[in-house]
Amino acid sequence: MKKIVLSAIFGSLLSGSAHAQLSESLNVKEFKLSNGLSVWLNEDHSQPKIFGAVVVKAGSKDCPNTGIAHYFEHMMFKGTDKIGTINYSEEKILLDSIAQKYDELAITKDEAKRKQIQKEINELSIRSSKYVIPNEYDRLISKYGGSRLNAGTSYDCTIYHNEFSPQYINQWAELNSERLMNPVFRLFQSELETVYEEKNMYNDMMGYQALEKVAERFFTPHPYAFPIVGSTENLKNPQLSEMRKFFEKYYVSGNMGLILSGDFKAEEVLPVLEKTFSRIRKGDAPKRDIVPLPPFSGVEEFKIKVPIPIVKALVLGWRGVPANHEDEVALRIAMGILNNDNSTGYLDKLAVDGKIMESKALNLSMNEAGVVGVLTVPKLLFQSYSGAKKLVMHEIDRVKKGDFSDEVFNSLKLEQKRNYIKNLENIDSRAQKMLSLFSEGKSWTDYLNEVKKIDDLTKDDIVKIANKYFTDNYLQVKKKTGNYPKNNLKKPGFAPIIPQNSESKSDFAKEMEQIKTLDAHPRFLDFKNDAKVIQVAPKVVLYAASNPQNDIFTLNIEYGKGTLESKLLSPMATYLNLLGTDSSSFDQFRARLQNLGSTLSFAAEQNKFSVEVSGFDKNFQATVELVADFFNHAKAEPKKMKQVVDEAKLRVKAIKRSPDELANALLDKVRYGDKSEYLNRLSVSEIKKLKGQDLISEFNSIQKVECNIHYCGNIATETVVDQINKNLGVEKVNVPSQTPVCREEKEYKEQTVYFIDDPKSSQSIIGGYIRGGVNNNSSERYQSALFNSYFGGSMSSVLFQQIREFRSLAYRVRATYKLPPYKYSDKNGQLVAILSTQCDKTTDAMGILDSLIKQMPETAERIEIARQDVVNRANNEYPSLRERSLKISFLIKEGYTSDPNKDIIANVSNLDIKDLVNFYNQNVKDRTITYVVVGNSKKIDMTKLSSFGKIIKVKSKDVFK
After folding, report:
1. At the N or C end, where does the chain have fewer CB atoms within 10 A?
2. What pTM did the predictor assign?
3. What pLDDT does residue 19 have?
4. How high is the pLDDT of residue 451?
């Protein structure tokens, strides 16, 4: 069975203000393999890569509160009866015994007996590990062109995905179909401990537990009420036998989909997929009984705890629509009247006018239920919940009464169309849309037809929808300051499970070496031809690129000055996004943009200040003229400075309550001292002293700084240049850029541990820093790329295997040797490591990290995979059409004259273990390590921690402003 959906359908459906011409890359061909597996193929030759994914319509709702769907996803990386083993028949005897022990554990309540069973599982796992080839699946992905390997579990589905070089399509299909046929649950005990670490990480995220409580209250009795990861109690009692039943029920051909988008020919790929993926077990999608949600009865009140004082938060939640519901498109427009891209919505206006601090419409559609809601943050200190709610409900009532103009309605339809089109314009975003559509039970045609649904909507439709869903029956959630107890698990005390065959190959891996590799056609950035480069003024360069995909333009102006040079830029970006002009209020100015289908936003980063504009080509001139009006006549509004101050206050409160942010701030201070980006910013008290005109003056100054302008669209380059010259004041640009700014790294003479005590955290965040050597030649840059892959930058790296895979001491662990910009050949590099672990494992994890940094294991066999990983990343990094000129200008600023990926690929293949060890010896070995730790001192062995260096206790207020 085959169904071909042509892009012409989509083009013919667009009407009104947007007649987008869409390219052939939007064709999606839908097939069924002989076993009933759905296949969606999308050819796009704009980038030399393929995004490949398998979608399984099975998620946490299918195993409520057990976590099976999630930890099954983890186990899918452990291999099969053919992948990841040197002798499966012998290994299976031990694995069967382990599975039996887990069944026994699940029904055992006596704690002493449970510990004995777990000890026996540990002993069996160690014995079975002598047959295991760890990470073989990951290594094979890397060997055959893969990068960005990952997976994810949601309420409704599980998705496995990566991108790969097109010449390896045969190997990718063989490997990923084999993966789904007979997965083996090896190394389960250590992986389950990693899942505990993941759960701890989520629990430490500010507000995560509160969201779980809201979901439980809103969705009960539906399985969406339970967390995806599962409860701590259920995670303590896993059963491999139940996981096997889950696989047999849901991992069948009729319940799965294969998604490919990228550089291939469908007619050539389909026979390959039939040969490989048709081997997957045939079966129909299981029938599901959807649990109905009862309507709310009046206003049902609920309170949650969030550990931020002073700040209030109010959530109003109504029953919404599931995905694929006939009201979905109309409801999206209704929500756009409340919040939209141009901040012209009724709730946006409340925040912009300072009547409340923030208010956002929420619209979430899962496969079996939906949420429509509003999240509101009242003004700090003095605004009551009832006062804020009254304002919000008034705006919702306006929508219900039809109190919005035809102009607003039509502009929102235009905005929706623009967003639909942009979702389809490159491989990554289109593939993500394909994944979500398939998992929701929609077809590609359904998505394309949604544009016609937008066109057909009337104002009356929106009013009916608003009244249908915004009823008097809803859940009202109020925040109070506090913390939920955390179900922390003590470290198990098991012996680490360390397989003995890290460098071995399975028979399957040897057989894969016989599969034919197609011809490679890599692409690299062409600094001269991927974009026209035009010097429109002495210090203004235009990069112009054509857009063959659609008729949406983007215009990005990047001024060569960032937050490392000016502390005013960050609050200035916030402020500018709230302003109008001398002749137009904020509402009027943004409405004019929205009526054109255009957007304007400002952003400040370390090394640039960006102005981002988008819209339809036909309205390019009108849009640029509006932007010019803002540039020349932005009007300061003193009252809106309070919103800038309030945002800064919220930022500070959020950092205080986030272990990750505290660790990042502490690590940045250790690396750069007073030049830390967290310290090199204005404090709340300093922002309070600013006047709006101060920020307008800074905006006028930034417009004089050397800049690059990036246009991507279909307007003739001459016209673009003419509009820039007429409107954007390029003649006044006369200040040379000093970016990229290279901060001086701090050097330490003795090993030290900087420590922030965080009594509420479940995990410790551990960072390590070494000031490396001066890397002033190209060969060291190739060596650093190889070192990163080998040591700490991939799933096959030394750190990942030794800390996560073998010892379960972290969910996330990574180390990167960071180089200064290419032009700064006299500057030092630096090694930066980061990991998170349960607090009582802190010193264990640090011990392994410390030993690996001080004495890197040297394994010649591992080099091949590390080399290929570097090559894959370089091959798969060729940017999408809107990103090409941005990447080119970034590389030129760094000091390059051509794409460095081309040189990396040409040179990395010549490096061997001696080159790697030499780089390590020169830049890492025997250099002083400085550690940072953010964690709960009561759960950390502080005496043992002091063995890693003198402990210097730091207060959180000293690492950020």
Report:
1. N
2. 0.93
3. 33
4. 84
444-456 helix and 406-422 helix, angle to the nearest 10 degrees: 160
- Write out the two tokens for 555: 């215009």
Bridge partners, residue 152, by sequence:
159
Angle at alpha carbon of residue 671, lines to 670 and 673, rounded to 5°: 65
* Predicted local confidence at residue 23, as pLDDT: 59
pLDDT below 70 — which residues of the chain?
A: 1-24, 488-489
> Residue 182's pLDDT is what?
97
With contact defined as beta carbons under 8 Å apart, do 359 and 374 qualify? yes
pLDDT of residue 245: 98
Per-residue 3-state assignment (H helix, E strand, C coil) for 192-222? HHHHHHHHHHHHHCCCHHHHHHHHHHHHCCC
CA separation for the pair 83, 175 (Å, rounded):
9
Nearest Cα to Cα of residue 235 among 194, 179, 192: 192
- Tell me what pLDDT residue 860 has: 86
Q: According to the model, what pLDDT value does residue 18 have? A: 34
pLDDT at residue 899 in the model: 97
Q: In the CATH scheme, what is the code of domain 752-958?
A: 3.30.830.10
SS3 651: helix
Cα separations in angstroms, 482 against 308, 706, 789: 8, 49, 42
By the 8 A CB rule, do 799 and 792 touch? yes
Name which of 820, 815, 822, 810 is nearest 790 in CA terms.
815
Retrieve residue 741's tokens: 């700014």
As given in the structure block, the two tokens for residue 534 are 């035009």
pLDDT for position 2: 35
Q: Which residues, 6 or more positions from 458, have their beta carbon under 8 angstroms from its beta carbon?
A: none
Query: For residue 215, what pLDDT is reported?
Result: 97
pLDDT of residue 660: 94
Distance CA 688, CA 690 (A): 6
Reference 521, options 34, 46, 839; nearest CA is 46
On the question of a common fold for 33-289+490-512 and 532-636+691-732, the answer reads: yes
Could you tell me which of 150, 172, 167, 184 has the C-alpha nearest to residue 277?
A: 172
Which long-range contacts does 660-663 make (Cβ < 8 Å, 24+ apart)?
A: 660/204, 660/205, 660/765, 660/836, 661/960, 662/756, 662/758, 662/765, 662/934, 662/956, 662/959, 663/756, 663/765, 663/766, 663/767, 663/834, 663/932, 663/934
**CATH topology assigned to domain 33-289+490-512:** Cytochrome Bc1 Complex; Chain A, domain 1 (3.30.830)
User: Residues near 657 by Cβ (< 8 Å), separated by ≥ 6?
Assistant: 206, 307, 308
> Superfamily assignment of 299-481 in CATH?
Metalloenzyme, LuxS/M16 peptidase-like (3.30.830.10)
Give the Cα separation of 329 and 323 in Å (integer). Answer: 10
Q: Report domain extents, the chain.
A: 33-289+490-512, 299-481, 532-636+691-732, 752-958
pLDDT of residue 308: 85
Using CA atoms, how far apart are residues 144 and 512, in angstroms rounded to an integer?
10
CA distances from 99 to 183, 278, 865 (A): 14, 29, 32
The token duo for 245 is 């039943």
Instruction: State how far the Cα of 104 lies from the Cα of 93, in Å rounded to an integer.
Output: 17
Other Cβ atoms less than 10 A from the Cβ of 946: the count is 13
> Which of 40, 24, 41, 50 has its CA nearest to residue 878?
50
- How is residue 565 written in tokens? 């040079």
Write the class of the CATH domain 532-636+691-732: alpha beta
SS (H, E, C) 275-302: HHHCCCCCCCCCCCCCCCCCCCCCEEEE
The residue among 647, 641, 640, 572 whose CA lies nearest residue 353 is 640
Q: What is the rounded distance in angstroms from the CA atom of residue 325 to the CA atom of residue 332? A: 12
Q: What is the DSSP-derived secondary structure letter of residue 805?
A: I
Look up tokens 């759905």; give the residue.
Answer: 38
Q: What residues contact 553, with CB distance under 8 A and at least 6 apart?
A: 547, 614, 615, 616, 617, 620, 711, 712, 713, 714, 715
